[in-house]
Amino acid sequence: MQKKRVSIKDIAEATGVSHPTVSRALRSEGRMSDQTRTRILDAARTMGYTPSLVARGLVMQRTNTIGLVVTNFADPFHSEVARGVEDEAVLHQFSVYIASSKVDAKRELEVVRAFQGRQVDGIIVSSSRVGDQYADLLQETGVPIVLVNNHADGTNIYAVYHDDYTGAYTVAQHLIDCGYRRIAYLGNGRAGRANTERKRGWGDILRRAGLPAEVKVLGSNGRLQGGGAGVAPLLDEAKRLWNAWPDAIMCYNDTMAIGVLRELHGRGIQVPEDIALTGYDDIEISGYVQPPLTTWHQPRYELGREAMRMVLALLNSTDPDEVPNVVLLTGQLVVRASTIKKVSHS
Amino acid sequence: MQKKRVSIKDIAEATGVSHPTVSRALRSEGRMSDQTRTRILDAARTMGYTPSLVARGLVMQRTNTIGLVVTNFADPFHSEVARGVEDEAVLHQFSVYIASSKVDAKRELEVVRAFQGRQVDGIIVSSSRVGDQYADLLQETGVPIVLVNNHADGTNIYAVYHDDYTGAYTVAQHLIDCGYRRIAYLGNGRAGRANTERKRGWGDILRRAGLPAEVKVLGSNGRLQGGGAGVAPLLDEAKRLWNAWPDAIMCYNDTMAIGVLRELHGRGIQVPEDIALTGYDDIEISGYVQPPLTTWHQPRYELGREAMRMVLALLNSTDPDEVPNVVLLTGQLVVRASTIKKVSHS
DNA sequence: CTGTTAGCGCCTTCAC
DNA sequence: GTGAAGGCGCTAACAG
Question: Given an 8 Å threshold on Cβ–Cβ distance, is B98 in contact with A86?
Fold first, then answer.
């Protein structure tokens, strides 16, 4: 099956020079007669030469390769992060290994270890559930590990964050400004830090406005199903504490909000007339559901790019201490119909 | 930055044996005294040894690595394919390189070439725009290339397909069974073969039922925006030919259908009362929009797994001719509210 | 059972 | 300007 690949030795033989010369010619390094250079390059082309990056990686101890760990391919958050990572990576001739952790800390570490066996030059972990444990790994192996929206606590590692607190704070403020007074929060029980921060932003602004920040429920996951399943307990809790439904539900993310939307629709509850609804992330589809979701635009693509940039900076700097180890990006409120009651022209 | 990694030589030195012995011990190959073996394994563990798969790849000419090319990370079709590929890959200790072609044939070929430089053992291309050109590449390099839902024509390559014709046929039949008579097709101008097949399935069943298969429009892409933008020309075309709106629109995929849904809603057109709507793929969200979409379940995860299985089969067989070079999977109709008018109890 | 030797394909000194 | 030698970390062949 495997054809023998042509190596620089083959080219050397064919052109009557030595392999080092071929190597230099191909990398346009060292001066040499234009004649031999073009002869070598021509031979390489006609013989169908492809340099072996494996061999090069071995000798250089640099593979121009990074490993990207996501929790789940299907999650629109990660796909955008991945896009950012890849775009930045190709600019620098890096290839990207990908693997999913399936939201399992043990698997996440296995995957990282596998990447290290592949001698990747850097590792990016999106929504890590392990977090600061990487500080040790980093010490051990010297392979830069950059986290995107680390879900664990601890800050002594390289990370690109989004400002979840401010985002949630702003969304909640928007709801208050719209006149909603019983604002519930539907969180994601598997999200760790991101969820804590968003809940904190929600709670702080509510209390500051003199509103009750009591009704909060943790969904079992951050997906459609988790959102839908969270509705019943949330309504129950509101009934119990307030003897009334919430007039607004703030969700951990857009995906859950869409799950909520269907559940509310099934119960004959109108959005936003009966209950307003907000998401978080601004995934593309959130503008296409009915009603379109008010949400917080999280710069997912940029998070990915910044993470890759940080890896590259770490790789190219002699003194890693001079590379800023945390980048904090912020997003933007996106107001759509799910929080804006139609004006009645009566 | 880079710590020196510990090699089998280091372990050999520390334990007073030769490196090949260490190598054998680690791979539990060849018999040796349990004593030395455990001594070596202990040393490896305490010294924090990680085998270099790069070096191994170089000598074995087998990297246990595959390259996966998708058109677009964000597309839910590809994320499921990727999941299937990865799950099967990890079972066999393969790592997965990923890259996106951005629906650009030139970029697709570049990416494949880059993978070959990395000496991947196999390549999987999802929704290729290049298709049979790979036959040559395969001949040249001997690296198996498996296509998932090849969008180009030609069949002389390894491929995993979904039966688009039957799927579209069945969806159209369902619409006819529901009593719809003016069934339009909104295609994807960038989809090639898949689109052709689905359109053919639609047209054949309509004609067989004595219905007009005239109103068809090609959207500019297979995304939300492409769906939304396709509505106006489609309605115009129907008006022109039939002097009436279609009573059903069959879309190339779910994503486009969701774009259509919003556009129809914006125009005050009810689904399915005024116009019924179908998607294709059965992406998760299609069950969550309002109304939930009738669609065709495409076994995306299985397509990915089968593709990876084919790569492995090709790798492990001495005679590639004995490996079936085409796998055809079929899907399943999923009926939801977007085609079923509520029964009126009058 | 274990050590010696060789080589995967490439790059980097160093001579010439 | 170019060639010769050595080595990256590992495995495969052969000795012993």
Answer: yes
Domain ranges, ordered by start, for chain B: 8-51, 62-163+300-330, 164-298
Residue with tokens 């486009």: B256
- Chain A residue whose CA is closest to B85: A99
Measured between alpha carbons, how far is residue B247 from residues A105, B277, B339 in Å? 51, 9, 10
Which residue's C-alpha is at the least distance from the C1' of D5?
A: A20
Summarised one tens digit per residue, pLDDT across range B255-291 is: 999 999 999 999 999 999 999 999 999 999 999 999 9
**A37 CB less than 7 Å from any atom of strand C:** no
Separation in Å: D13 C1' and A30 CA: 38
Question: How far apart (Å, rounded) are the C-alpha atoms in residues A15 and A39?
Answer: 7
CATH number 3.40.50.2300 given to B62-163+300-330: yes
Question: Rounded to a whole number, what is the distance in angstroms from the first to the last CA of chain A?
Answer: 78
Residue B64: closest C-alpha in chain A: A118
- Yes or no: domain A8-51 corresponds to CATH 1.10.260.40: yes
Residues with Cβ within 8 Å of residue B26, at least 6 apart in sequence: B8, B40, B41, B44, B51
Reported CATH class of domain A164-298 = alpha beta
What's residue B199's pLDDT? 98
Measured CA to CA in angstroms, residue A245 lies from A171, A180, A235, A251, B187 at distances of 20, 12, 6, 16, 44
The nucleotide lying nearest A5 (C-alpha to C1') is: C9
Q: Is the CB of B62 under 7 A from strand D?
A: no
Give B102's DSSP letter: T
**Does residue B266 lie within 7 Å of nucleic acid chain C, judged by its CB?**
no
Domains A8-51 and A62-163+300-330 share a fold: no
